């Protein structure tokens, strides 16, 4: 006698229901696995295309700004104001000066300034390079202005010191002399000597025009021309311009001609006296 499978009122057998239930379970498991694979793939792609150094760099910048703000509030706020707006009869506004100007003033020791004078003298820097970078970053972030170049040191020296010499004589020699020895100006002011000045300081000085120096923007002197001027200055300073021995003050052909004339006249007088004594 044959047994027929029991059927539900709708005509569906128990075996069919179990098969459909297993099929649904498989589909759900497959969907969960596919979703997991997709999430893992998305995470891998995100990690690959959004590297961690960006977050680290943002954190480093924030720490640098906080350090710069602390240094500014401790050493600069009395003269330059809480919001870089300046203080009357004490210090000018720093809004718009930028990190290039603050770097020049701080790295050359001209700031902080003990008292207002006609000319701020170069002195040993009061801050470390790291502290100067922090103050520069704070001033740049809150006041804007011309930024210090990303290149530094010998990277700021051009490849054509000869062209740099021509540009220096046209634009700089009137105040700094032909070999960068400086000179006196009116009203107690002077053009400083360029001996021992770093490439970064020369470039930022041309970029910002501190005190009596004019600003040499990129329209007046291109970045390449500025670098050539730096190459020329370095070729005639730091002991590089005395192949014959004594620099004679480094004032150029005038001092050399004067010494030659004095020595020549003295020699002629000596020879004349010697001839007269023999006669």
UniProtKB/TrEMBL annotation:
Please list the residue ranges that the record marks as compositionally biased, kind Low complexity. 1-14
Question: What molecular function does GO assign, one term?
Answer: iron ion binding
Q: Where is the sequence biased in composition, kind Basic and acidic residues?
A: 144-161
Which membrane topology describes this protein?
Multi-pass membrane protein
Recorded GO cellular component terms are: plasma membrane
InterPro entries named in the record: bc1_cytC-su, Cyt_c-like_dom, Cyt_c-like_dom_sf, Cytochrome_c_Oxidase_Subunit
- For whether the record's keyword set contains Coiled coil, the answer is no
The entry's comment on post-translational modification says: Binds 2 heme c groups covalently per subunit.
Q: Which residues take part in binding heme c 1?
A: 76, 79-80
Protein's UniProt keywords contain Membrane: yes
Give EC number(s), comma-separated: 7.1.1.8
State where heme c 2 binds: 172, 175-176
Q: What is its main location?
A: membrane
Report any Pfam family annotated for this entry. Answer: Cytochrome_CBB3
Indicate what this protein is called per its UniProt record: Cytochrome bc1 complex cytochrome c subunit
Which species?
Kutzneria albida DSM 43870
């Amino acid at each position: 006698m044959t047994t027929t499978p029991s059927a539900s009122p709708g005509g569906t057998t128990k075996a069919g229901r179990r098969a459909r239930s297993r099929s649904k379970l498989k589909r759900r498991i497959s969907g969960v696995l596919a979703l997991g694979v997709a999430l893992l793939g998305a995470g891998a792609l995100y990690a690959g295309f959004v590297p961690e150094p960006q977050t680290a760099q943002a954190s480093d910048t924030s720490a640098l700004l906080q350090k710069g703000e602390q240094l500014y509030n401790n050493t600069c706020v009395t003269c330059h104001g809480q919001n870089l707006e300046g203080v009357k009869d004490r210090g000018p506004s720093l809004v718009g000066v930028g990190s290039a100007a603050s770097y020049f003033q701080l790295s050359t020791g001209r700031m902080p300034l003990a008292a207002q004078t006609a000319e701020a003298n170069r002195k040993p820097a009061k801050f470390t390079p790291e502290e100067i970078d922090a103050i520069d970053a704070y001033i740049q972030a809150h006041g804007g202005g011309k930024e210090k170049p990303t290149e530094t040191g010998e990277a700021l020296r051009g490849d054509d010191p000869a062209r740099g010499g021509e540009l220096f004589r046209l634009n700089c020699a009137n105040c700094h002399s032909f070999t960068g020895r400086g000179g006196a100006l009116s009203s107690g002011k002077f053009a400083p000597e360029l001996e021992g000045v770093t490439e970064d300081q020369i470039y930022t000085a041309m970029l910002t025009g501190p005190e009596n120096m004019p600003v040499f923007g990129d329209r007046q002197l291109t970045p390449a021309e500025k670098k050539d001027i730096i190459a020329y200055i370095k070729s005639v300073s730091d002991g590089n311009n005395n192949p014959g021995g004594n620099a004679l003050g480094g004032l150029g052909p005038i001092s050399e001609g004067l010494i030659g004339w004095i020595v020549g006249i003295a020699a002629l007088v000596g020879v004349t006296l010697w001839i007269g004594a023999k006669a």
